[in-house]
Amino acid sequence: MRSSWILSQLAALSCLAQASPLLPFGEQPYDSSVNHSEPVRGVNIGGWLVLEPYITPSLFERFRLSEDSDEGIPVDEYHFCAKLGLEAAEAVLKTHWDTFYMETDFKQIRAMGFNLVRIPVGYWAFSRLANDPYVSGVQEKYLDLAIGWAKKHNLKVWIDLHGAAGSQNGFDNSGLRDQINFLNYDENVEVTLRSIKYLLAKYSGEQFADTVTGIELLNEPLGPAIDMGKLKSAYLQPSYDYLRSTLQNNDQTIVIQDAFQPPHYWDSFINTSSANIIIDHHYYQVFSQGDLARGTPERVSVACGWGQSTLNEFHPSVAGEFSAALTDCAQWLNGVGIGSRYDGSFWKNGQGSYFIGTCEGDADIAEWSETRKQDTRRYLEAQIDSFERTGGWIIWCYKTESSIEWSTQLLAKYGMFPQPITSRQYLPQCS
Ligand SMILES: *[C@@H]1O[C@H](CO)[C@@H](O)[C@H](O)[C@H]1NC(C)=O
Ligand SMILES: *[C@@H]1O[C@H](CO)[C@@H](O)[C@H](O)[C@H]1NC(C)=O
User: Fold this and answer.
1) Which one of the ligands is nearest to 272 CA?
2) Could you write out the DSSP letters of every residue in 398-411?
3) Where are the alpha helices (DSSP H) in 153-295?
């Protein structure tokens, strides 16, 4: 029933849509409130319309059965909804959507000097598989509210499809952890295409044109674990063609996440001069033992190399996710029940880790050493400088319930995120 409603909405939208000239990236209609020679300076609205246990642990703690283990705690939004049942899940989620982000946040984000927000949303917000436990059809109202706040406060928006049916990466932030079945069943591709087409039709329309300046087809497909040829032929290309060839408002910028592929991989994908594609590269140095063991000078030099490596790619690029984190200490960052590599508590699929340092006091700024604060600021500045040589950057993420490293709000409060946004405490580190 829901899917036929979506289809009729789609038909209505594409009929009503009106033609507008094709404006490549960087040549949007003039808007005096936005400095078009600025790079993208954005922040991710993480943990809002797609749950992540580490961003809002309080939503998940209600299921705790034991002090000694994470037994009973759902590992992702799929299992969160399955455990609560649709009605209760909808009530809890509505409260979360009403309170975790509000207009005051967007006002503050603009006041901090950002010019864009990237908003993750799951396919299930718009259409579901027959047996999906997810709440659906409600998130759209909040997405529209957020776009309205952005417009009012002079922020641009990228809408980012963060979860595909069956999961494109097995991460909890895709909605469904520990399986990568997106491309393995036709119905997964069909339902995900239905959602992205709905997003493309609605948010490329005239009503949103001055605010929604990019739609990201799919966040972080796990390239090495999936059929990249099929990802392109069964999902990315049809989505792109639907926008450019079927819709009348067809000039939206398409954002393609790099799928963990090396620089220049996407040079051969839709490489016409009018492609209007931005490649979104994500960068972290906390998800392997080798990354975590680095000292700050080495970490900074890796960060400087990131911007450099994409300068001559065919498509313009933005670092759509990166963070200040020097550790993986935030509770559940690696997933419910998994632990941290940094302090040796990590355990997943028979893989452990070795101790680098303690995670105690990670969520308490009073426990942070001056060195840790300085290293964090230095690493952040290096990344921002590196990415400003490209199309810009979008930090992950604006707020968390308790983690400091992953909260731009707290990093700014404690002097680790540059304010004003262009100020620097360290000499240019990427020359
Ligand atoms: C626009 O941004 C550029 C690059 O950051 C800067 O040099 C210039 O001063 C800015 N212009 C205005 C009017 O703020
Ligand atoms: C464009 O893509 C084709 C393959 O689709 C490739 O052969 C060609 O080298 C690419 N052009 C550039 C400039 O990368």
Assistant:
1) 2
2) S--SS-STT-HHHH
3) 186-203, 228-230, 237-241, 289-293
Give me the CATH number covering residue 295. Answer: 3.20.20.80
- Domain of residue 301 covers 5-30+37-329+376-413
Count of structural domains within the chain: 1
Q: Indicate whether 14 pLDDT > 70.
A: no
Query: Mean of the pLDDT values across residues 252-265?
Result: 98
Catalytic residue among 52, 77, 216, 321: 321
- Atom number, ligand 2, closest to the C-alpha of residue 268: 2
Does 254 fall in a domain?
yes
pLDDT digits (tens, 9 = 90+) for 317-332: 999 999 999 999 999 9
Amino acid identity of 11?
A
In the residue annotation, 220 being an active-site residue is answered as yes
Structure token digits, residue 279:
């490649």
Map tokens 């759209």 to a residue: 140
- Which candidate in 220, 381, 388, 405 is catalytic? 220
Which residue shows structure tokens 């490649």? 279
Residue 103 catalytic? no
424 within a domain of the structure (yes/no): no
In a domain, 429, yes or no: no
Choosing from 236, 264, 267, 274 the residue with most ligand 2 atoms within 8 A of its CB, the one to mutate for a pocket test is 267
- Residue 339 covered by a domain: no
- Condensed to tens digits (0 to 9), the pLDDT of residues 25-67 reads 333 333 444 556 799 999 999 999 999 999 999 999 999 999 9
Q: Is the CB of 314 under 6 A from ligand 2?
A: yes
**Mean pLDDT, rounded, of the chain:** 92
